[in-house]
Amino acid sequence: MSLGFGDEKNDLTCERSVCVKNPHLDSMKEDILYHLNLGTATDDIPAKFGDVKFVCVGGSPWRMKAFIEYIAKELGLADSSEAYPNLCEGTDRYAMYKIGPVLSISHGMGIPSISIMLHELIKLLYHARCTDVTVIRIGTSGGIGLQPGTVVVTKQSVDAMFLPRLEQIILGRSVVRSTELDGELAEELLQCSKELGEFETVIGNTMCTLDFYEGQARLDGAFCSYTEEEKQNYLAEAYAAGVRNIEMESSVFAAMCTLSNLRAAVVCVTLLDRQKGDQLTSSHDVLHNYQQQPQILVGHYIKKRLSAVKKS
Ligand code: R2B
Ligand code: URA
Predict the structure, then answer these.
(1) What is the pLDDT of residue 225?
(2) Is 262 exposed, middle or buried (0-12, 13-18, 19+ CB in 10 A)?
(3) What are the backbone dihedrals phi and psi of residue 107, each rounded to the nearest 5 degrees, phi first?
(4) Of 8, 166, 305, 312, whose CA is between 20 and 30 Å from 218?
(5) For residue range 56-82, what is the model confidence (pLDDT) as tens digits?
(6) Please, are residues 133 and 52 in contact by the beta-carbon 8 Å criterion?
(7) Which atom of ligand 1 is closest in space to residue 109's alpha carbon?
(8) Distance from the CA of 111 to the center of ligand 1, in angstroms?
(9) Is the Cβ–Cβ distance between 137 and 253 less than 8 Å?
(10) Residue nearest to ligand 2 atom 6, measured at CA
């Protein structure tokens, strides 16, 4: 049986505060955010996190540390010691850094990993009583029909059948949730890229898969039961459905941000054109430069938003 996502969406009553939709939370004396190594009884969550307005999430802990260093410099908030403590110290599951109103967190690879982090992040923002928070996933992806290094801002996250949905089994039943993202925010990010003029950016659909190899029609995994022609046909079908890149987290990211009333966007650079190959053959330096592009774009966006607030 399929439970629709409509009911979950329609009873959203809060404006731009962060919504949790779990009546059990109210009766808990303490909430332990186990994978972040934080908790309501052990940490003053509102004091530590109450001023957060932007959250950037990305797969690698190293990249998310680099992002906080970058954004600190961009916002003129860089500490002379340049030391940004990992706020999740004590666990190696995720890494979290903060500078002013910006939080940067790693989420690992794939839907299960980002989903655990997002449950705890959403509760963290809720306990901190944050308002007007924008969450952006910055990441890497495989492109379809795009020059490597192109940045894709996701219009819709679609599954491997090109449908804008996330199916999850809850209590043995199929629950389907919408993977909508904020269209206005996507356009604002595209505009930021035009202002920067440093790299190509497009808005397109992003296919979110459960696997890097067979799930993304690669021919170079340990197992493969299809031909090159079948792979190319599938990628051509994806392209015709508006898919411009493939990655592994956007669907649950979109679904969970929508449920909790968070403004959200996905900004991923393409590392290769999947119609031309499967292996990542570009040099380390080239790949490193590609990976900075989502950071530069989101950095520009945050700076612009903060300067608009200052002026008003
Ligand atoms: C992009 O890159 C990772 C796989 O290499 C995965 O986390 C993703 O979405
Ligand atoms: N990440 C993916 O999920 N797929 C790619 O092809 C590249 C990065």
Answers:
(1) 97
(2) buried
(3) -130, 0
(4) 166
(5) 999 999 999 999 999 999 999 987 666
(6) yes
(7) 7
(8) 10
(9) yes
(10) 142
pTM (predicted TM-score): 0.94
Rg of the chain over all Cα atoms, to the nearest angstrom: 19
**pLDDT tens digits along 124-168:** 999 999 999 999 999 999 999 999 999 999 999 999 999 999 999
Strand order across the 2-3 sheet: 2-3, 173-178, 165-170
Kindly give, in sequence order, each residue whose CB lies less than 8 Å from that of residue 87, ignoring residues fewer than 6 positions away: 36, 38, 48, 96, 97, 98
**Pair 131, 262: CB distance under 8 Å:** no
Atom nearest to 249 CA in ligand 1: 9
Which residues on adjacent β-strands are paired with residue 134?
Answer: 54, 263
CA distance 237 to 114: 27
Q: Does ligand 1 have an atom closer than 6 angstroms to the CB of 143?
A: no
Taking 90 as the threshold, does the pLDDT of residue 207 lie above it? yes
The 10s digit of each residue's pLDDT in 222-275 is 999 999 999 999 999 999 999 999 999 999 999 999 999 999 999 999 999 999
Q: What one-character DSSP code corresponds to residue 131?
A: B
Determine the topology of domain 2-311 in CATH.
Answer: Rossmann fold (3.40.50)
What gap in Å lies between CA 124 and CA 134, rounded to an integer? 14
Q: What is the pLDDT of residue 188?
A: 98
Beta-bridged to residue 157, according to DSSP, are 206
Domain coordinates of the chain in residue numbers? 2-311
Ligand 2 pocket (Cβ < 6 Å) reads 140-142, 212, 216, 246-248, 271
Query: Residue 123 pLDDT > 80, yes or no?
Result: yes
